[in-house]
Specification:
Largest sheet: 6 strands, mixed
Strand order of the largest sheet: 6-5-4-2-7-8
Oligomer: single chain
Number of domains: 3
Shape: elongated
Number of strands: 8
Radius of gyration: 31 Å
Number of helices: 15
Order of helices and strands: HHHHEHHHEEEEEHEHEHHHHHH
Distance between the termini: 88 Å
């Protein structure tokens, strides 16, 4: 008896079940390949899919296409550290935190998941911090070009000559820089929350006032107490609060360091470091902020045997240890401390509680190991100019180099290659411009 023809829907169902069945076998084979030792030859996903397509044809006499290959989701599902129940708990937690205005970033979510896995698997759960997901950071063109071979050579010669001539010791080598903190600001970060069309908001205080923190570190691994500059026209008693970092407190109309504050800071710097210097010269590395070059600042530095060296313009992202090593971590810890405080207390960060919240983050980051790393990675102590590689520098595009380049592109400019630089510049202005 002739049977009824299968419907199109039934045929699709059968084909889908056949595809899923052979794909499951291919995934199992692929996982077996991944489990092989590093010295064993492994088959790739495409090869395994091709082999199982041939196997299916041998078994059934029908062709099948393993579309999409072995997906990451199917392969990784077998390696998940979380159980299905734990996964649902994590998803509910993500949604709840997002709905309350405290969405989890990738890093904070990983911390919570790690705690769950450690609780169930103990030492069987391997934790690694070797890699991370980062957002790219824009670097201005003038900063990218500032560190060129000529600037680099001049900086190292100046630093070496100063250290040698004045016999600067490790415990007398200092670096200082300023970090801006906004109670309601902070880095924008990727966060998780409920799937929806509207933005995922994160609760923050409404104040946009800038608070400046002056951080001073020494090559021997020590750090001075920070100086905190509030925006205001006069000191207010309510600013007195719990101060775990023993920060010095000041104020200015805009919340930034100005010339007057710079003079007060250099006086305090001398007071805090004079005993350790024991009448020896101290080296102070600063950026190009104008508060470091007022007459009063430089006069006090000269009188107190403090040698002030300024990094070349637009190069602190390469030469300044606080920028290279410390500030990125410090900003993240401060941001975490602020978010945690606001979540627990429901209060916003203001001048009345800033020192209490910022202080523990400052102490956590400014460890002797981190401070010494800041000087080591920038080649200040121990002195090592090789830390700045050729890849970190922009080419030194002089006028001679530019003319040589053009002469190769335009043969009519070739005679200029034999002319002195001053004549090249004069002739350059006489050339027609497009």
């Amino acid at each position: 008896m002739v049977g009824h023809a299968k419907s199109i829907t039934k045929k699709k169902q059968i084909a889908r079940e056949a595809h899923d069945g052979i794909m499951a076998r291919a995934v199992e084979a692929y996982q077996a390949e991944l489990a092989k030792g590093p010295l064993q030859r492994r088959q790739g996903a495409r090869t395994i899919c091709s082999d199982f397509q041939k196997l299916y044809y041998f078994e059934t006499g029908k062709q099948i296409k393993l579309t999409g290959g072995i997906s990451k989701s199917k392969s990784n599902s077998q390696h998940s550290w979380l159980t299905d129940e734990e996964t649902n708990v994590v998803i509910d937690y993500i949604i709840e935190m997002g709905d309350h205005g405290f969405p989890l970033s990738h890093r904070r979510l990983k911390e919570h998941v790690d705690e769950i896995c450690h609780a169930r698997l103990n030492d069987q759960f391997p934790e690694t911090d070797h890699i991370k997901v980062s957002r790219s950071c824009a670097l201005e063109t003038k900063c990218g070009r500032a560190v060129n071979p000529t600037t680099n050579e001049a900086w190292w010669n100046l630093l070496k000559d100063t250290i040698t001539k004045y016999n600067i010791k490790q415990h007398n080598t200092y670096g200082v820089d300023e970090m801006g903190c906004q109670p309601s600001g902070g880095e924008r970060e990727h966060v998780f929350g409920r799937q929806k069309k509207t933005p995922q908001y994160q609760q923050r205080g409404g104040s946009r006032e800038n608070i400046t923190v002056i951080v001073t570190v020494c090559a021997d691994g020590t750090a001075m107490a920070p100086s905190v500059i509030f925006k205001g026209s006069a000191f207010q008693v309510k600013w007195n609060q719990e101060n775990p970092a023993n920060a010095f407190l000041g104020y200015s109309k805009k919340g930034w360091t100005d010339g007057e504050i710079g003079v007060k800071w250099i006086k305090n710097f001398d007071k805090e470091t004079a005993a350790k210097a024991n009448d020896e010269y101290r080296l102070l590395l600063v950026d190009g902020h104008n508060s470091h070059y007022t007459r009063g600042f430089l006069e006090h530095a000269r009188t107190d045997q403090i040698l002030v060296l300024c990094y070349p313009s637009h190069t602190t992202h390469i030469y300044q240890g606080l920028d290279v090593v410390v500030f990125s971590t410090l900003k993240r810890c401060w941001s975490d401390a602020r978010d945690e405080y606001e979540k627990k207390t429901g209060e916003s960060i203001s001048k009345k509680n800033f020192l209490a919240v910022y202080g523990p983050a400052h102490l956590k980051v400014l460890t002797p190991e981190t401070i010494r790393a800041a000087f080591r990675k920038t080649g200040v102590w121990p002195f090592n100019l090789d830390v700045i590689t050729q890849d970190m520098m922009a080419p030194n595009y002089s006028l001679d180099f530019f003319v040589i380049y053009l002469s190769r592109k335009t043969p009519t400019l070739a005679p200029l290659m034999k002319m002195p630089t001053n004549q090249i510049a004069k002739r350059h202005h006489q050339l027609p411009h497009s």
